[in-house]
Design a protein that fits this description.
The structure holds 2 protein chains of 2 kinds. By secondary structure, chain A is an alpha+beta fold. Chain A contains 8 helices and 4 strands; from the N terminus they run βαβαββαααααα. In chain A, helix 4 runs antiparallel to helix 5 and helix 5 crosses helix 7. Classes of the chains: A alpha+beta, B alpha+beta.
């Protein structure tokens, strides 16, 4: 049986969520890196696979799927066994994970992307309202993990994989992260996963490169 | 002579009064305190072989005293430890003064001395006993050569997450050899024991640097796990353990191996759900086994990943 193919932009946050989920499940992926700079995702070949031209996109035999959170759920469902703690079957536990995935999609990742990541890439300034959204987002996570090891309790779930890749943009935050000690402790815990560095390093490399470029041209 | 101070409180009718009574026991243990465990395990948070023994102890629900022998700072070279065990290897177990080295021997001893379920080492004259022995032997994989070998030859497995770089390993081995030579001169009574530890270190470095040796170990590992997969498929994947419905010492060998491989980023190479579905199911089931999770707790306690 062929491995699942993952079309990804190296360093892309939602792609990293999927990669970490696959690593946690022991599922090998055939990686198909795309270059957003070269507009690989807009090529006719890729548009045939995914007309939304987004990554991550997986191809599992004759089944194609995109949207990172849907992919994570799919991988756990297919390869996680009877009841995997990454996305538990228990109705209420699952609802908690779903709530956080929705919060990530609608609020948290938005704040990280629009206020921290895009301004770096596009060299734009942020509004006061955007800055406040980031502070609120960090505060939310800090409160959430105050009495927990991970976002929903003592075990890692795909909600952690979703939120942490946005949270990693804290490296771009000019404010003081020591205001959020619980969130930083949770972040550190996830960084201790054996596959964390391998999956997430490309993002930090890109950030370093862009920062260097900015420094040289400013 | 052990003297124990106890604080006793008592209450009376309407008012709670606290009376503190200090009682001194001259011999024996306080009846209120739990008896000291009979087993002491000299271990470290990352030791592969200590994990096998700990998993057995957890499965048997046998309490034990943990004595940390931190191999990363060469605690096992300390003269007190070498005197307990001239091979200077971790783990060793102590049972009321008796020292048992070698993880497999410790598990055999434990199973005999603490015969409560699960029966880890069934009678070798039985079919099950023979299978357990066979798989324990098969699963005695040269983990060190594989993992250090991949650190020296990362091209042999691109998925590998090395804990140490090649340079760090070279430095570590050179440091250990220098330390052993120094200790040999400082402790004449242990001189031979110290010097005896040097050739295996040199041999380890030679073997790990040699890509052919490492590749052969990797190929053997694939063959071993093929046989394990074939065995698991015959059972009910996810319901029975390797050889029967209960855990045996063969499962312990397999569990610790899978754990170490997974930690090294090699899960998808050796037990992916597409390549070895029964073994993947087994690994998923392991993660819900308390004795297996407790290995993670021990690692966290000592601030390591293992």
């Amino acid at each position: 049986m062929a491995n699942i193919q993952l079309y990804h932009f190296p360093g892309s946050p939602p792609c990293r969520s999927v990669l970490m989920t696959a690593k946690a499940l022991g599922v090998p992926l055939e990686l198909k890196p795309l270059s957003s700079l070269n507009k690989d995702h807009l090529s006719p070949e890729f548009l045939k696979i995914n007309p939304d031209h987004t990554t991550p996109t997986i191809v599992d035999g004759d089944f194609t799927l995109w949207e990172s959170r849907a992919i994570m759920r799919y991988l756990v469902g297919k390869y996680g066994g009877e009841d995997n703690s990454l996305y538990p079957r228990d109705l209420q536990k699952r609802a908690e994970v779903d709530r956080l995935l929705d919060y990530d999609l609608g609020v948290f990742y938005r704040a990280m992307l629009e206020t921290l990541m895009l301004p770096l890439r596009n060299k734009t300034k942020t509004t006061k309202e955007q800055d406040e959204k980031v502070v609120k987002a960090f505060e939310r996570i800090d409160t959430l993990v105050k009495d927990k090891k991970f976002l929903t309790g003592n075990t890692l779930t795909i909600a952690d994989f979703a939120v942490v890749v946005g949270f990693a943009a804290e490296v771009l935050y000019p404010g003081d992260m020591s205001k959020y000690p619980n969130a930083m402790a949770w972040y550190k815990r996830i960084q201790e996963l054996p596959y964390y560095k391998e999956v997430n390093q490309p993002f930090f490399d890109i950030v370093e490169n862009v920062k260097k470029q900015r420094a040289e041209t400013s | 002579m052990i003297s124990v101070l106890r604080r006793v409180t008592s209450s009376s009718s309407l008012f709670v009064t606290r009376r503190y009574i200090y009682t001194s026991f001259v011999t024996g243990f306080s009846k209120m305190a739990a008896p000291s465990p009979r087993y002491t395990l000299y271990m470290s948070g990352t030791s592969y072989y200590a994990q096998k023994v700990m998993m057995a102890l957890f499965e048997k629900n046998e309490p034990f005293v943990e004595k940390l022998v931190n191999q990363r700072i060469d605690d096992n070279y300390e003269s007190w430890f070498m005197k307990l065990n001239p091979l200077g290897k971790v783990p060793i177990m102590e049972d009321r003064g008796k020292i048992i080295p070698e993880s497999d021997d410790i598990i055999d001893y434990l199973d005999k001395e603490s015969p409560q379920a699960p029966r880890l080492v069934p009678d070798p004259s039985s079919d099950l006993g023979r299978e357990v022995a066979h798989f324990r032997k098969l699963l005695n994989v040269s983990v060190g050569i594989i993992l250090h070998g991949l650190a020296y030859n990362p091209n042999l497995s691109p998925d590998y997450t090395a804990m140490k770089t090649r340079e760090e390993l070279d430095e570590m081995i050179a440091g250990k050899i220098a330390k052993l030579e120094k200790l040999a001169s400082e402790h004449p009574d242990l001189r031979d024991a110290y010097l005896a530890k040097i050739p295996p270190l040199q041999k380890r470095k030679e073997m790990c640097s040699n890509p052919e040796v490492v590749q052969k170990e990797l190929d053997d590992l694939q063959t071993t796990l093929e046989e394990v997969e074939a065995k698991l498929v015959k059972g009910s994947p996810g319901e029975t353990w390797l050889l029967c419905s209960d855990l045996t010492a063969a499962d312990i060998s397999l569990a610790v191996l899978l754990r170490r491989l997974s930690l090294s980023g090699l899960a998808s190479v050796y037990f992916s759900p597409t390549q070895r579905p029964a073994l993947h199911k087994y690994w998923l089931r392991l993660q819900t086994l308390p004795a297996y999770s407790r290995l993670g707790d021990i690692a966290v306690k000592y601030g390591v990943q293992a």
